[in-house]
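Predict structure. Chain length: 273.
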Amino acid sequence: GTLTMAAAASTSPHTPHRRRRPDGRPGGGTLRPLSAEVSTLSRPDGSASFSAGHTRVLAAVYGPAAPRAASREDPNGAVVTVVWKHGAGTARKGGGGGEKGGGGSAHPGYGATERELERFVGDALASCVRLERYPRSVIEVVVQVIRADGSVLGTAVNAAVMALLDAGIEMNGVPAATTCLVLRSGGGGGDDDLRLDPTSEEEGAAEAAVSVVVTDNVNEGQVLTTITFGNLKVASLLSCVEGATRAGKAVVAFMRLAVEQKVTREAQTLWSS
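Prediction complete.
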């Protein structure tokens, strides 16, 4: 079954702006409703779909398996590879009118190439997988964007993490990604308007953005990696990281709940059969 949750506000103390956002959210620190489904596909070793608002990404995990080429083999641990795909005619947020901005399906990484996105997602996943448990093997993660309405990169990371959990891959912690957008304030010298989990409309007006991946391991809230787009003031970058870290904790809790729900459902099926 699908687990859905209206995510709680995660406003950073340095994000004072309370103006209502295009999709109706009350402030810049509020996430969109989250939805997830585990074991969505039968052929991969693990799969999951993850949605944030209208953005939906499907992820599939194949492996651990022997690499097709010996050159991709690491005798000390697994190699994590990521393939980024767009569904045929990837949908933008539904409706007739034109969407503002270029964030959506065409530019999920604010101008980054698909190869750069694959590398970012792969590095984020590899930092939490216990690679030493799977020597001389490859773990391939295929990420497919089904519907794009902002925050595609963060949603893709979260879908991939849930697919790894579904595949039973051993991990040091559960990472979660959140995107924070920077909209320049109208007046000179004012604080920037920071918005977590932006829509494509908000992305179209953005000056800069940062995607932050945090983990829930022993160092809870530890920032694993970030990727920044555009020019950010140091104060804005720190506020974005702080807000995204707070939001990441809520996302991790949601992902754990979705996986636990699946395990409970399977156990009930096993005992009732």
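Summary: The chain has four helices and ten strands.
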